[in-house]
Structures are given as C-alpha cells and as structure tokens.
Write a structure and sequence with these properties.
The protein has 178 residues and is an alpha+beta fold. The chain contains 4 helices and 8 strands; from the N terminus they run βααβββαβαβββ. Strands 1, 2, 3, 4, 5, 6, 7 and 8 form an 8-stranded mixed beta sheet that branches.
Length: 178
C-alpha cells in the first residue's frame, strides 16, 4: 500500500445510513455524479426521490452504509436487492466517494462493511458495472473478491462519448466470498 492509500481515516465513521443522513448523502451523490466519470447519473436525483430511495433501502433491509467526516457524508456504498423473486438472491452494488477522500482506503472499508452486511442479509450474488477506464475502482473491486464477467459495450454515453463498462460479480459461499 502506498503512502496516499495509508492516510489516516480514523476520524471517519462508517455507519448504516439513516434518515438524518439523507440531505448530506444527496449533496455527496450530486458532487460525484457531476464529475461525469463514475456514476450512471449525471446529477443527483431530486431530493424527494433520493429520500424515497434511501427510506426504501432502509425499509427493505438492504445494506447501505455511509462514511461520515465532520457530520457530513463523504462516501457511501449500497447493495439494492433485485426486484424479481427469482432473482432476490442478487443485488446491485453502487458506491461513491468525494474527491478529497479518495486514495485513503475508505472505499475498501465501505465495500467490506457493506459486503458483510449483504452476506448476513442472505445475498448470494452481488453485481456491479464499472466503467472500463475507472482503473482505481476495478482494482478495488478485484481486491475485494469481484470477478470480471463481461464487457458491456457502449454502456454509457456522456457528452457524446461512449464508454464501455465491465460487468463484475462476487458470489458468497456459506463461509465467505467464493
């Protein structure tokens, strides 16, 4: 691990998202979305939609964690269980970290915490799509057990440019990730 990745994150708490975090989560989501590099959305959904999403995640018992620094959300990771009953063992992972907090090991802490909660909640498979040019995220996902399953060609179009994505998944066994 390099010096940047070993920076002190001791002042950052990782905790399950709660209604009190929604406004701050919405602001963080908007910052990362507007970078137009990492998320499918190009800006955060309106606050009422974000609130409905978070409250729905809480009500369904889906794992969603936030990283808190100075009472503000600086990162998040969540796994949304698939809607169809025949696919209910599967979930889709989403995450983001504010630019100033990247490269400090926070992503790994968030994803490991969220994956533990997903396994405890009975998920068997966790999936994600990551833009092919997001090398830091690809490395993180592979370090935490995700395996590349395929390329989604022209998965996104941002500012007239097509971006391929890599579909990845992690399978849980009874005693841990497969």
């Amino acid at each position: 691990m390099d010096a940047a990745a070993s920076s002190d994150t001791s002042g950052i708490r990782i905790e399950p998202i709660a209604a009190a975090h929604i406004d701050s989560f919405h602001r963080a989501l908007d910052v990362v979305a507007r970078e137009k590099k990492y998320l499918s959305m190009l800006e955060a959904t309106p606050l009422p939609e974000t609130r409905a999403f978070v409250m729905g995640m809480i009500a369904k018992g889906n794992p969603q964690f936030v990283a808190i620094a100075q009472d503000e959300v600086v990162g998040w990771c969540d796994i949304d269980r698939h809607f169809f009953p025949s696919h209910a063992h599967r979930g889709k992972l989403g995450m983001g970290i504010l630019p100033a907090y990247r490269g400090q090991g926070l992503g790994r802490k968030l994803i490991e915490t969220t994956l533990r909660a997903a396994q405890e909640a009975g998920f068997i498979r966790v999936e994600l799509d990551v833009y092919q040019d997001n090398l830091r995220a690809l490395a993180l996902y592979e370090k935490t057990g995700f395996v590349r399953e395929g390329i989604i060609r022209r998965a996104a179009r941002i500012d007239g440019r097509f971006i391929d994505a890599i579909g990845m998944a992690l399978l849980f066994e009874e005693d841990g990730p497969a």
